[in-house]
Amino acid sequence: MTVHIGAKPGEIAETVLMPGDPYRAKWAAETFLDNAKLVNEVRGMFGFTGTWNGHPVTIQGSGMGMPSLSIYANELLKDFGAKTLIRIGSCGGMQAKVKIRDVIIAMTATSVSTPSLEIFREVNFAPSADWSLLSAAVEAAKTKNVATHVGGIYSSDVFYDERPDLTEQMTRHGILGVEMEAAELYILAARYGARALAVLTVSDHLQTGEALPSEDREQSFGDMVDIALHAAFPS
Ligand code: HPA
Predict the structure, then answer these.
(1) What mean pLDDT is predicted for residues 178-206?
(2) Whose CA is closest to 29, among 221, 196, 199?
(3) Could you tell me the distance, in angstroms and rounded to a whole number, from the CA of residue 121 to the centre of ligand 1?
(4) Can you tell me which atom of ligand 1 is nearest the CA of 180?
(5) Distance CA 86, CA 17 (A)
(6) By C-alpha distance, which of 104, 129, 136 is closest to 223?
(7) Quick check: 195 and 96 in contact, CB under 8 A?
């Protein structure tokens, strides 16, 4: 047990999927895992452990934003011995070619700031995905009927952004989408010698203003979870 994760020793798998929303953790565990058991409910941030194709997997909510994710990822890596963390979440599309419901596999995560800023100080560390996970996710996505983009994303500290000029520069520099967690996840995985990846579903679009209707979300999010599981355990 840690301050924020009530699981007993051995109840967290080495492979952890991390949605921002604890209710999405519950849905994904019930939909994809066999024998899913609730292992954490501290602060309502549900974690479930079960198996997928016989492999132990935990699905633990991260909350929204890098400070929240940092708490859960630190405890999973440092105290529970997690070795592979895959974020499954939503993002806003930032390129015309990126459409609602598409999947983005995040190779790198640019940010203005992360909770690790005080460590790096003058250094612009480049948070990047684990190659073995990234390449396996790309292979898994090819078997699905979902448009997939691989490239850089932007991990923002704000959802209600007051800097349209920043969004414009990100788009100009080819950033595919914006979310709020991946950069710190990649940094923490690097720090602890673990593997990390973010697989994202485009839920809204910054240029078109479109947003995914809530009834459509399950199917789209399902593809993303399936890609993440195949990335962790390629056949
Ligand atoms: N901004 C930041 N995070 C997000 C967005 C967005 O537009 N959509 C989903 N997560």
Answers:
(1) 98
(2) 221
(3) 26
(4) 3
(5) 5
(6) 104
(7) no
